[in-house]
Amino acid sequence: MDSTKGSSSDSRRRETLTGVFYAASAFLIWGLSPVYWKTMQAVPALEIVTHRVIWSFFILLALTLAQRRGTELAEVLKTPRTLLILIVTTLLVSVNWLLYIWAVNASYLLQASLGYYINPLVNVLLGMVFLKERLRRPQALAVLLACTAVAFRTVSYGQFPWIALTLAFSFGIYGLIRKVAPVSPLVGLTVETLLLTPIGVAYLIYLERQDAGALFHGDLALDALLIGTGLVTAIPLLFFNLAARRINLSTVGLMQYIAPSGMFLLAVFVYGEPFTTVQLWTFALIWVALAIYSIDSLRAYRLVGRTF
Question: Whole-model pTM?
Answer without folding.
Answer: 0.90
